[in-house]
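Amino Acid Chain and Its Fold in Token Form
===========================================
Structure side: the spatial fold of the chain, written down as a series of whole-number tokens.
Position: the record begins directly beneath this header, with no further notes in between.
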Amino acid sequence: MSNKLIDLVNITKSFDGEVVLDDLNLYIRENEFLTLLGPSGCGKTTTLRILGGFESPDKGKVIFSGEDITTLPPNKRQLNTVFQKYALFTHMTIAENIAFGLKIKKKSKSYIDDKIKYALKLVNLEGFEHRMPDSLSGGQQQRIAIARAIVNEPKVLLLDEPLGALDLKLRQDMQYELIRLKNELGITFIYVTHDQEEALTMSDTIVVMNQGYIQQIGTPEDIYNEPQNAFVADFIGDSNIIHGTMIEDRLVEILGAKFPCVDEGFGRGTPVDVVIRPEDIDLLKPEEGTIQGVVTHLIFKGVHYEMEVQANGFEWLVHSTDLFPVGTKVGIHVDPFDIQIMNKPGSEDEEAVGVNE
């Protein structure tokens, strides 16, 4: 990855006395696909709006290529935003929509015509110049909104839940389109979503947010395989999160049974949160497992079976390509490497702050 392009420094923002962002620090590299991920109200869209110049922070600075742009209006920033509601001008043709920003910049007609052709080709909608927006499908309108942003040659494209209104198949197609566009254009994408799968599919870097704080920053693999707290583990994919006690280094007690693990440094007799992904649980014959249980639910998911196993007073969620019918007695085994140990937060506030402490 190349150099730092954007630096958000100590950003704080409140609405009506409610703190939405609390001393947020984040930097974004050039040519990175960075996703802000989190539940509604976690501050991700506010962060994007502050970047775009649509909101001003109460405190803190926005640095872009080494310059302080905190007070610059949106049209003076080298970035463009694509919103969830595509905001196409319904009374203009597609060509006029795409040309809008370039006309304001007083570009020549031949320059604008070239740019329209180039942008439509890029989003696979050649020949759509004279169509009206209401004759296009949702996916096509979204691509026009992206084309309109691209022709202004922004250094950064801000995307606020841009695929939110599309159906599943179209969303998946558009995810690949966006990755292709980013690679072809070599610009930085900053993407806001609450959809974990979208974030995992598309991003170089994911920033998981909750209650105005950053919980974890990392690659999709880091965030999925090494969640830093129970919130991240629970938010990204399915997890079994179980109360445990660290007996000693590399040995944890879960639900009265001892499981070898690889974590160290938690001390002895320490209460911890234990995270085990459903696909990391092996179901064996009862006598071969660390603990024994019974399959209580079963759903076929196409790639795998999703089962619930009642064992030692806990409903274990298990994903397996092997079928164990409801009522089957099973043993549960988890490899030491697949057991994640986390500190328990001491309070709700500490829980929100996550890794910022």
Q: What stands out?
A: The mean pLDDT is 92. Residues 239-356 form a domain with the OB fold (Dihydrolipoamide Acetyltransferase, E2P) fold (CATH 2.40.50.140).
